[in-house]
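We emphasize that the prediction below concerns an isolated chain of 320 residues; any contacts that depend on oligomerization or on bound cofactors are therefore not represented. The input was used exactly as deposited, without trimming of termini.
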Amino acid sequence: MGELRHMLRDDDVNHEEQKQILELGMKFRADRFYHRPFEGPQGVAVIFDKPSTRTRSSFSIGVAELGGYPLVIDKSGSQLGRGEPVADTAEVLTRMTYGIVWRTFEQSRVEQMARVATVPVVNALTDEFHPCQVLADFLTLAQFKGGVDNLENLKIAYVGDAANNMSNSYLLAGAVAGMDVRVAGPNGYLPDQKIVEDAQAIAETTGGSIMVTVDPEQAVDGVDCIFTDTWVSMGEEAEYAIRSKPFWPYQVNERLMGLAKPDALFQHCLPAYRGKEVTTGVIDGPQSVVWDEAENRLHAQKALLTWLIGKQRGDESLLS
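Result of the prediction step, given as a token string:
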């Protein structure tokens, strides 16, 4: 047996491990059946406490393409949704499945699951982190910007609500990759200082750098890619008019894109609200790679699951 590993937040892997996963992702892009570690089929639980399109599609199809059976569990169809303790669910699933993927609310829930589970646990989104999305985003950068080895030479900017899970994940994952990471948002919507400190400590070891600012123009100056996200989270749509007011200066429009490098990319984790966090001209324009980014959820997550199960089984052939 090898080593049980989980992916609960973006710094659960180091620089070389992140590169290894992304290189696997590139191989899955070229051959969707490159590895099939869940042949049997072996079951992987994919649990949804929140609605999903890309996460549900990419993990369900991904597990199947890896030779496994995706056991998709919705909140309304599980005892978790009725208040069963996380540890009790973990005890059951860990005896029946070969991996647990969970899209939920508090980060503490996936951490509880991982403390009990004897199979890899993957955070498919929590209120604090979205590591699977950022792996796909970095795979997209590798696709268009010179490969995985070139990631450490890139400058990226995230603008908008900088106090959310995407901002946290870009800070940590970008630091792990050795990138120059800039995050911009209005006062009151900036990342937690502990996350910033964690990212800065990692960047010191990888050659990256971290900037947090309230100035969107400073953040995007000369970057290779601009990222954004919705200004209003799921369940807050009724408050859009009020909640969106501080974010209008952070809209990714043609003027803001013009401050980045001429060949800069635009990425958005989706769903997007055209005319709000991003203009139609940008998201549907020639610099946008949002559809490649969405597709890369499939390849990146297959790579991650393969890498995690390879680590657990001590099977080096699955790691490359």
